[in-house]
Amino acid sequence: MSATIALAGNPNSGKTTLFNALTGARQHVGNYPGVTVERKEGSYVANGQTRKVIDLPGMYSLTAYSLEELVARDFLVQEKPAAIVNIVDAANLERNLYLTVQFMELGVPVCIALNMVDAAKKRGIEIHGQQLSELMGVPVVPTVARSGQGKAELMQAADKLIGAREKIPPLIISYGEDIDRALAEMEDDIAIGLPNSDYPARWLALKFLENDEQIFGFCQKENPDLFARLETSRERVARHIATTLATCPEAVIADHRYGYIKAIIKQGVITHHLDQDRLFISDRIDRVVTNRFAGPLIMVAVIMALYQFTFSYSELPLTWLEGLFGWLSGIVEATLPDGLLKSLIISGIINGVGGVLGFAPIIMFMFFGIAILEDSGYLARVSFMLDRVFRSFGLHGASVMPFIISGGIAGGCAVPGVMATRTIKSPRERLATLLTVPFMNCGAKLPVFALLVGAFFAEHEAQVMLIITLIAWGGALLSAKLLRSTVIKGESTPFIMELPPYRLPTFRGLLIHTWERTWQYVKKAGTVILAISIVLWALMTFPGLPETQQQAFERQRATVTASASQDHEEQLGAIDAREAEAALRHSIAGQIGTAMESVTHLAGFDWRTNIALVGGFAAKEVVVSTLGTAYSLGEIDPEETGSLAATLAKAPGWNPVVAFSLIVFTIFYAPCFVTVVCIAREAGSWKWGAFSILFNTTLAFGFAVLVYQIGSSGIFGA
Ligand code: GDP
Ligand code: MG
Questions:
Q1: pTM of this prediction?
Q2: How far is the CA of 253 from the centre of ligand 2 (A)?
């Protein structure tokens, strides 16, 4: 039988590329028994010798945090490949060596393929393979998997390892006095209690301290008494570390592994040819920007500045667009005869879609500001700082990015946010993140906020926007905590955060980023929102007033016209408005909205708002377009042809408290339909999709009622 060589490494280090370069067409793809993780094997032939090659799933560590890692580890331990080729991304050496060190601790025959040396070189990074090999004590072969460069040397190095398994002593790293002492005791106990296991005793002890559930299960099955003793030791160490270092054993272990790697790298393994200055400057900037005390203050100031910038610069284009849509309505008003078509175009399309499009300038400036934060590298610092906070709410450092993508600062989208949770290894933290990212202020909620803030808090736009952001975050984190201590209970996993160096954004890059996102917004308004607006317009128009009521209004008009009074115009206008309002109320949507009023009045929402909120489940912008249509169909004041914000500001039943209650409801209520589908798909069950609708809406309603009731009670003198 030919010897097996396994390719192992972090995701995206180039395993599959190398595998293809080695095996060509001699491949076979199947699944690992019982799981849907792909198993790829093939053969490599050189000098008349055939070797079986396996492309293992990507992994960051040998602790079973994910299914892929578990499968890969089981393969290494149980099938004992003759040699392991550890593919390492040369441009991210430090992080990649984290896995290498763990192979060495496991005591398996490993050699390093220092891959992507071409890409590293382009970035000015040169790695001295020889030096690295001597310091680590394993063979190192530089490769470029894409071109096949170095593959023959690599396979020779791997060949030399065949048969060496027994001769390789596991690497022993010191983890500090506390852990070392515990490890030694546990190791002795394991050596006696589990003499014939596939795993080295110290390694098992280490995994125990790292909270590896699969290893717990293994020990419990093989030797329950031993398991109980190990468990006691683990708890004792964990408690001790919690009191002395305020952290957990996993974190201490990870720190020491990185320390070991850093110590090696520092000894001249890497030469940076460019950008040394940039890295240095970055470090200097970070000392201030991510400082424990100054950091959060700077963060709030930066975000506040972003809002200030957005609202002040978008004011002028906002009035232009308003004028444009007013002018369009005017033309249609003057040219088309009264009737359904005119109503569809003015109320359904111009006031509906126009309401959403009208906010494009705000969206554009917001995105421009965010592009600056992102391209400069500041956003990564925000993740870094929030990492600590996130852990205390049962989330993960890796949850920060999905939150920001979903609109953590403003103007993201929960759909890519939900997708981005794939980088979170721990299933519980991933689920908690999935379920809470929809609370962020996505680009679709922005026009709703912009409308209400503009109408009722025009004096303090940026401040109110900051408050909205803080409420969204507070609510999201508290919900995460709630979920993690009830429906998704479980331990946290450690995580290492990287900070890329600062970069001066290029103007071109900023424009492209801004344009891409603004265009998406505009496109959505022109397609999805248009379609939904038309449907909602129809729901708000049909079935129309019954004959008898129409006649009643006709009679009223006739009476006015026949009377001798001076203000015919005004009185007729008032009758028109009453008729329009009656028709809207009688429409399908109006009836639904009215039926809901019995509950929603607790939060200050009338039937028109209810229609808008139901429509908002399709897409949140629809809240604005629906209000636009509803207030245009059921004209409140026929003389008034101002913007929707101006209309709302004057409309009966509206005041700042109602507006704020609606803002709070919009932040928290059911994610839009597409997001729900994504949540269900990513969580692997419709149950979680349904959960997010119910949980979020209940939460939202609770908060909105609270805001409305307290706000209207007069406590704040309002
Ligand atoms: P895997 O996740 O480890 O299987 O990684 P892949 O083989 O899918 O490679 C990830 C990406 O890195 C792909 O886009 C490859 O084309 C690219 N890649 C792989 N090896 C090299 C290399 O040596 N140099 C460069 N520049 N790119 C590489
Ligand atoms: Mg792959």
A1: 0.56
A2: 28
Read off the pLDDT of residues 333-355 as tens digits, 9 standing for 90 and up. Answer: 888 888 888 888 887 788 777 76
Q: Answer yes or no: do 382 and 531 share one domain.
A: yes
DSSP run (H or E) holding 6: strand 4-9
257 and 154 in a common domain: no
Residue 564 lies in a domain: no
Q: CATH number of the domain at 73, please.
A: 3.40.50.300
If one counts the domains in the chain, the total is 3
Exposed / middle / buried, residue 191 (Cβ in 10 Å: 0-12, 13-18, 19+): middle
| Mean pLDDT within 77-88 | 94
Ligand 1 atom 13, closest CA: 14
If asked whether residues 310 and 237 sit together in one domain, one would say no
Average pLDDT, stretch 39-45?
Answer: 91
511 and 602 assigned to the same domain: yes
Ligand 1 neighbourhood includes 524 CB (under 6 angstroms)? no
Name the pairing type of β-strands 125-127 and 270-272.
antiparallel
Residue 118 Cβ inside 6 Å of ligand 1? The answer reads yes
Report the residue among 112, 146, 151, 154 best suited for mutation to probe ligand 1: largest number of ligand atoms under 8 A from its CB: 146
Cα–ligand 1 centroid distance for 6 (angstroms): 17
Does any domain span residue 240?
yes
Q: Which ligand is closest in space to the CA of residue 123?
A: 1
Statement to judge: residues 244 and 157 lie in one domain: no
Q: Which residues contact 193 (CB under 8 A, 6 or more apart)?
A: 223, 225, 226
User: Which of the listed residues 257, 272, 287 is the one where a domain comes to its end?
Assistant: 272
Reduced DSSP (H G I as helix, E B as strand, rest coil) percent helix, strand, coil of the chain, to 5: 70, 5, 25
pLDDT value of position 717:
53
Render pLDDT for 658-683 as a digit per residue (tens, 0 to 9).
Answer: 999 999 999 999 998 878 888 988 88
**How far away, in angstroms, is 110 Cα from ligand 2 center?**
19
Which residue segment(s) compose the domain that 159 sits in?
Answer: 4-163
Is 563 part of a structural domain of the chain? no
Nearest residue (by CA) to ligand 1, atom 26, is 119
Residues 6+ apart with CB under 8 A from 92: 10
- Residue 303 pLDDT exceeds 90: no
Distance CA 593, CA 591 (A): 5
The verdict on 410 and 476 lying in the same domain is: yes
> Residue 223: which CATH number?
1.10.287.1770
HEC string of 398-450 equals HHHHHHHHCCCCCCECHHHHHHHHHHCCCHHHHHHHHHHHHHCCECCCHHHHH
| Ligand 1 atom showing the smallest separation from residue 13 Cα | 3
Q: Ligand 1: which residue has its CA nearest to atom 24?
A: 116
CA of 105 to the centre of ligand 1 (A): 27
Specify whether 159 is located in the same domain as 196. Answer: no
Phi–psi pair at 45, nearest 5 degrees: -120, 130
Is residue 574 situated within a structural domain? no
Residues 14 and 119 in one domain: yes
DSSP character for 353? I
Closest-CA residue to 703 (of 656, 670, 661, 649): 661
Question: Which ranges of 24-123 would DSSP assign to H, the alpha helix?
Answer: 67-74, 93-106, 117-122
